[in-house]
Amino acid sequence: MQVGSRTQTVPAQRRSIDGLLTVGVEEEFVLVEASSGHLANRANEVLAGADRFEVDLQPEIAQYQVESASGICTDMAVLREQLTTARRALIERAARHDARLAATGTPVLGLTMPTPLTDSPRYHRMAQEMGALTNDLAICGCHVHVGLPDDESKIFVSNHLRPWLPTLLALGANSPYWLYGDTGYASWRYVVWNRWPTSGAPPHFDSAAEYYAAREEIVASGAAMDAGMLYWDVRLSARHPTLELRVSDVAPTVEEAVLMAALVRGIAATALTSGAAPVNPPPHLLKVAMWRAARDGLEGFGIDPVTGAPTPASSIVASLLRWIRPALEFSGDHEMVTTAIDRLLLDGTGAVRQRRAFARRGRMDDVVRFLVAQTSPV
User: What is the pTM of this model?
Assistant: First the structure.
């Protein structure tokens, strides 16, 4: 089956890129008890005095979550250095309070419901408006921001990212465990998050005006309190002049976070320089593809974004790399990206490595110890 395409094209003056697109990455983590590996409600203590840190560290919705944000980068080596510095700062601060940092899309031990919310008027209002949806928000993602010249370019790139969302989800799958057991999914975080009415893959939009009209309708309906609660897998950021990809679990390692940033920038640059109309998989097929990616990760079958046929996920990744290779070579990221992908294909995604840690002795606390060790930059 040949999936559909739309006729949207980028204006001719935007079909070349002077220099490199900027990127930034936000990473969410859980704090765990140093002794037991259970969740540790110590974000307030860990982040005390955060305004004096050299890196951007913030609380998240749960008292056992913390977040870091890089600056605006064009060089992946600089991004790597910033993410490394942020992780080390959080690890050091957590250790002072008998806690450890773990990069996992869902916690392995000690999940309690409802979620102990960070004391913020916004989060309390969310709990009031959304009810039990906020009860199990112990989930952590990796968000990649790409700087683009205007809103029409952001919509154009969003449409090009849309068919590759399942592939990016599969590459970043890092959450197989939930409530002390194996879910059978590579990314259970994605399944949990998709209960929210504004989550999931976005529609194809023909213009920024159409996007903003849809956003206003969603806010007016009460399904989102404001523009910041439009939680699509890729969206126009409500706080920054960027396009924001939100589909992936938090990366197990800094290298995998940098890989995700390089891939997203490569897709964006390829879309802008080609000016070609994006592939537009129908909503039902894209939904199925997202489910397969969340269940199987990189190790199973995906849905080819061009043909719509079940295809080994690794083959779809190879197709993506062929398409964006000129952009990766232009940015100097090609060798880094291909090396990182080869490592993922050999060693497995974060989900595979978590399961491997459990399989050694059949103990969940071994998974937590593995996660803590893996989160720490080398």
Answer: 0.95
